[in-house]
Amino acid sequence: GSVGLSTIADGRLKDLIRQVSCFGLCLLPLDVRQESTRHAEALDAITRYLGVGSYMQWDEETRIAWLTKELNEKRPLLPRDVA
Question: In a 3-state reduction of DSSP, which class is residue 4?
């Protein structure tokens, strides 16, 4: 039944909802070793939004070059109003 669900809802889940509400998803950890598909999908959505192509269709060399360039930029990858 529902044994323990209220504990979860009032504990970790409520904390997560508060954190996302305050900080958005930008601080959400993403382990790229375990979540490579989600990582690629997220970057694909970003590259398509920016109009630079499809990350998922790029070869490894193109991905690395683009990621390296973006990591060296001083500006945010996405405008603040997108998050």
Answer: coil
Contact 55, 44 (CB under 8 A): yes
Mean pLDDT over 32-44 rounds to 77
Quote the tokens at residue 53.
Answer: 């192509």
Listed in sequence order, the residues at least 6 apart from 55 whose beta carbon sits closer than 8 Å to its beta carbon are 40, 43, 44, 46, 47, 48, 63, 66
**70: buried, middle or exposed (CB in 10 Å: 19+, 13-18, 0-12)?**
middle
Contacts of 16 (CB under 8 A, 6+ apart): none
Rg for the chain, CA atoms, rounded: 17
Cβ neighbours of residue 53 under 8 Å, at least 6 residues apart?
47
> Taking Cα atoms as reference points, which of 30, 49, 28, 27 lies closest to residue 38?
30
Global pTM reads 0.53
